[in-house]
Automatic annotation (TrEMBL):
<dbReference type="GO" id="GO:0016740">
    <property type="term" value="F:transferase activity"/>
</dbReference>
<dbReference type="InterPro" id="IPR001763">
    <property type="entry name" value="Rhodanese-like_dom"/>
</dbReference>
<protein>
    <submittedName>
        <fullName>Rhodanese-related sulfurtransferase</fullName>
    </submittedName>
</protein>
<dbReference type="InterPro" id="IPR050229">
    <property type="entry name" value="GlpE_sulfurtransferase"/>
</dbReference>
<dbReference type="InterPro" id="IPR036873">
    <property type="entry name" value="Rhodanese-like_dom_sf"/>
</dbReference>
<feature type="domain" description="Rhodanese">
    <location>
        <begin position="48"/>
        <end position="137"/>
    </location>
</feature>
<dbReference type="Pfam" id="PF00581">
    <property type="entry name" value="Rhodanese"/>
</dbReference>
<keyword id="KW-0808">Transferase</keyword>
Length: 165
Protein backbone atom coordinates (compact mmCIF):
# COMPACT_ATOMS: atom_id res chain seq x y z
CA UNK A 1 0.00 0.00 0.00
CA UNK A 2 2.85 2.37 0.81
CA UNK A 3 4.40 1.81 -2.63
CA UNK A 4 1.11 2.66 -4.31
CA UNK A 5 0.78 5.90 -2.30
CA UNK A 6 4.35 6.82 -3.24
CA UNK A 7 3.57 6.12 -6.91
CA UNK A 8 0.51 8.39 -6.76
CA UNK A 9 2.52 11.15 -5.11
CA UNK A 10 5.37 10.92 -7.61
CA UNK A 11 3.06 11.07 -10.63
CA UNK A 12 0.43 13.46 -9.27
CA UNK A 13 1.76 16.10 -11.67
CA UNK A 14 0.19 14.09 -14.49
CA UNK A 15 -3.31 14.73 -13.16
CA UNK A 16 -5.22 17.57 -14.78
CA UNK A 17 -5.42 20.64 -12.60
CA UNK A 18 -6.90 24.12 -12.78
CA UNK A 19 -4.34 24.98 -15.43
CA UNK A 20 -5.33 22.49 -18.13
CA UNK A 21 -8.00 19.85 -18.53
CA UNK A 22 -5.85 17.53 -20.65
CA UNK A 23 -3.22 15.23 -19.16
CA UNK A 24 -1.48 14.82 -22.51
CA UNK A 25 -1.36 18.57 -23.10
CA UNK A 26 0.03 19.14 -19.62
CA UNK A 27 2.77 16.54 -20.17
CA UNK A 28 3.70 18.17 -23.48
CA UNK A 29 3.77 21.66 -21.92
CA UNK A 30 5.83 20.55 -18.94
CA UNK A 31 8.39 19.09 -21.32
CA UNK A 32 8.68 22.36 -23.24
CA UNK A 33 8.43 25.05 -20.55
CA UNK A 34 11.61 26.15 -18.80
CA UNK A 35 9.60 27.64 -15.90
CA UNK A 36 11.62 30.86 -16.05
CA UNK A 37 8.43 32.94 -16.01
CA UNK A 38 5.61 32.29 -13.53
CA UNK A 39 2.42 30.98 -15.12
CA UNK A 40 -1.20 31.97 -14.64
CA UNK A 41 -4.15 29.69 -15.34
CA UNK A 42 -7.01 30.65 -17.61
CA UNK A 43 -9.34 30.58 -14.60
CA UNK A 44 -7.18 33.02 -12.64
CA UNK A 45 -6.60 35.26 -15.65
CA UNK A 46 -10.36 35.64 -16.19
CA UNK A 47 -10.60 37.08 -12.66
CA UNK A 48 -7.84 39.62 -13.39
CA UNK A 49 -8.49 40.59 -17.03
CA UNK A 50 -9.31 44.23 -16.27
CA UNK A 51 -6.11 44.65 -14.25
CA UNK A 52 -3.48 43.23 -16.62
CA UNK A 53 -1.92 44.09 -19.94
CA UNK A 54 -2.18 41.13 -22.31
CA UNK A 55 0.68 40.77 -24.79
CA UNK A 56 0.23 38.47 -27.77
CA UNK A 57 3.65 37.16 -28.81
CA UNK A 58 2.56 35.26 -31.91
CA UNK A 59 3.21 36.24 -35.52
CA UNK A 60 1.01 39.05 -36.82
CA UNK A 61 -0.96 36.74 -39.12
CA UNK A 62 -1.82 34.53 -36.11
CA UNK A 63 -2.96 37.55 -34.10
CA UNK A 64 -5.02 38.81 -37.05
CA UNK A 65 -7.07 35.58 -37.10
CA UNK A 66 -8.01 35.96 -33.43
CA UNK A 67 -6.63 36.99 -30.07
CA UNK A 68 -7.71 37.42 -26.48
CA UNK A 69 -9.95 40.46 -25.98
CA UNK A 70 -7.94 43.67 -25.40
CA UNK A 71 -4.64 41.90 -26.19
CA UNK A 72 -1.85 43.95 -27.65
CA UNK A 73 0.28 42.42 -30.40
CA UNK A 74 4.04 42.55 -29.75
CA UNK A 75 5.17 39.57 -31.81
CA UNK A 76 8.00 37.17 -31.18
CA UNK A 77 10.68 37.88 -33.77
CA UNK A 78 9.56 41.51 -33.82
CA UNK A 79 9.53 41.97 -30.03
CA UNK A 80 11.93 44.50 -28.52
CA UNK A 81 11.94 46.93 -25.62
CA UNK A 82 10.27 49.61 -27.78
CA UNK A 83 7.20 47.36 -27.92
CA UNK A 84 6.54 48.06 -24.23
CA UNK A 85 8.32 51.39 -23.73
CA UNK A 86 5.03 53.01 -22.67
CA UNK A 87 4.45 50.56 -19.79
CA UNK A 88 5.68 51.20 -16.23
CA UNK A 89 7.99 48.43 -14.97
CA UNK A 90 5.45 47.41 -12.28
CA UNK A 91 2.62 46.84 -14.80
CA UNK A 92 0.94 43.44 -14.38
CA UNK A 93 1.64 41.73 -17.72
CA UNK A 94 0.42 38.39 -19.05
CA UNK A 95 2.09 37.07 -22.19
CA UNK A 96 0.67 34.33 -24.39
CA UNK A 97 1.19 32.65 -27.74
CA UNK A 98 -0.11 29.38 -29.19
CA UNK A 99 0.94 26.99 -26.40
CA UNK A 100 3.18 29.14 -24.18
CA UNK A 101 6.73 28.57 -25.39
CA UNK A 102 7.29 31.72 -27.44
CA UNK A 103 5.53 33.78 -24.79
CA UNK A 104 7.80 32.34 -22.10
CA UNK A 105 10.83 33.57 -24.10
CA UNK A 106 9.30 37.05 -24.46
CA UNK A 107 8.50 36.97 -20.74
CA UNK A 108 12.18 36.31 -20.05
CA UNK A 109 13.07 39.38 -22.13
CA UNK A 110 10.54 41.48 -20.22
CA UNK A 111 11.97 40.34 -16.90
CA UNK A 112 15.51 41.08 -18.12
CA UNK A 113 14.31 44.58 -19.08
CA UNK A 114 13.18 45.15 -15.49
CA UNK A 115 9.48 44.31 -15.62
CA UNK A 116 8.54 42.97 -12.21
CA UNK A 117 5.11 41.42 -12.69
CA UNK A 118 5.22 39.19 -15.76
CA UNK A 119 3.35 35.90 -16.10
CA UNK A 120 2.84 33.42 -18.92
CA UNK A 121 -0.67 32.12 -19.70
CA UNK A 122 -0.40 28.38 -19.09
CA UNK A 123 -1.39 26.56 -22.29
CA UNK A 124 -1.82 29.97 -23.96
CA UNK A 125 -4.53 30.64 -26.55
CA UNK A 126 -5.16 26.92 -27.17
CA UNK A 127 -6.03 26.31 -23.52
CA UNK A 128 -7.99 29.59 -23.36
CA UNK A 129 -10.21 28.44 -26.24
CA UNK A 130 -10.32 24.80 -25.08
CA UNK A 131 -11.81 26.03 -21.79
CA UNK A 132 -14.56 27.85 -23.69
CA UNK A 133 -13.26 31.41 -23.39
CA UNK A 134 -13.80 34.07 -26.03
CA UNK A 135 -11.34 35.23 -28.65
CA UNK A 136 -11.96 38.16 -30.97
CA UNK A 137 -11.07 39.17 -34.51
CA UNK A 138 -9.42 42.44 -35.55
CA UNK A 139 -12.77 44.25 -35.28
CA UNK A 140 -13.17 43.08 -31.68
CA UNK A 141 -16.00 40.70 -32.58
CA UNK A 142 -16.10 37.21 -31.05
CA UNK A 143 -14.93 34.51 -33.43
CA UNK A 144 -14.49 30.76 -33.40
CA UNK A 145 -11.38 30.96 -35.58
CA UNK A 146 -7.99 30.27 -34.03
CA UNK A 147 -4.69 30.15 -35.86
CA UNK A 148 -3.43 26.66 -35.07
CA UNK A 149 0.19 27.38 -36.12
CA UNK A 150 0.59 24.06 -37.96
CA UNK A 151 -1.25 20.78 -38.38
CA UNK A 152 1.18 19.20 -35.92
CA UNK A 153 0.40 21.77 -33.21
CA UNK A 154 -3.28 21.93 -34.16
CA UNK A 155 -3.95 18.59 -32.47
CA UNK A 156 -3.91 20.43 -29.13
CA UNK A 157 -6.76 22.77 -30.09
CA UNK A 158 -9.97 20.90 -29.29
CA UNK A 159 -12.49 23.72 -29.72
CA UNK A 160 -12.89 26.48 -32.26
CA UNK A 161 -12.20 26.52 -35.99
CA UNK A 162 -8.58 25.81 -36.85
CA UNK A 163 -6.95 28.18 -39.34
CA UNK A 164 -3.54 27.43 -40.88
CA UNK A 165 -3.02 30.35 -43.27
Amino acid sequence: MRAFAFFLLMFSWLKPNAQTNSRAYKVMLEGMYKHTVPTVSCTDLKKELKNVVLLDTRAKNEYDVSHLPEARWVGYDEFNSKSVADLPKNTPIVVYCTVGVRSERVGEKLKAAGFQNVRNLYGSIFEWVNQGNTVVDNQGKPTQKVHAYSRTWGIWLNKGEKVYE
